[in-house]
Specification:
Helices cover about 15% and strands about 30% of the residues. It has about 240 residues and is an alpha+beta fold. The chain is globular and about 60 Å long. Bound molecules: manganese (II) ion.
Amino acid sequence: MTVPTTEFVFLPPPIPTVEIAGTRQRFPVHRIYCVGRNYAEHAREMGSDPKVEPPVFFTKPADAIVPSGAAIPYPPRTENLHYEVELVVAIGDAGRNIAAGQAHGHIFGYAVGNDLTRRDLQGASKKKGLPWDTGKAFDASAPIAAIRPASLGHVEGGRIWLSVNGETRQQSDVSEMIWGVSEIIAELSTLFELKAGDLIYTGTPAGVGPLKPGDRIECGVEGLETLRNTIAAARPTK
Ligand code: MN
């Protein structure tokens, strides 16, 4: 007897994957979680009080990832595309209600990411109390460099920076995060079951600002692969 094979009505889309530094293996992406307002200076520049408002969680689709080296199209329906350099945590082991003290055991590795944001659309959503999806979860909104395995060491601190056309725009230290990586994993895993393949963008420091077609962006976290992208010309609207 033959086992029936699944017949799809069309070819399923490819699984989004991220390069792993130093190997030919790839990290298959399950979900992308993001943390907002996780550096005090950035929370202030966005008009929040970091002491009374806890970090917020939001998501992006897994297929929003873009590798280092790629040209990113200037997205439609915005006149204020912003960069946000972030430390990204890659989950390698599933869990729910993970204690902060156990969080390291669930981490596969770390990478540098850019939480691209249509700031005008995000601002309009905030003002109306609406979801952030159109501002945050658009196509190609999650550039990410190669993942460095946690077996080479966990990221506890280190310089985090971003430059546009060679000019430094963001500069802080990962140790300045309001919620550290272990606390984020503990909190997030009470809301969602974390799965191998999840990526967590852990929030951006102060200095966010606009990008325009032709810009060259470099993002770094000390000890991790640098993320390099350019913004391509706007796509025709028709
Ligand atoms: Mn962000």
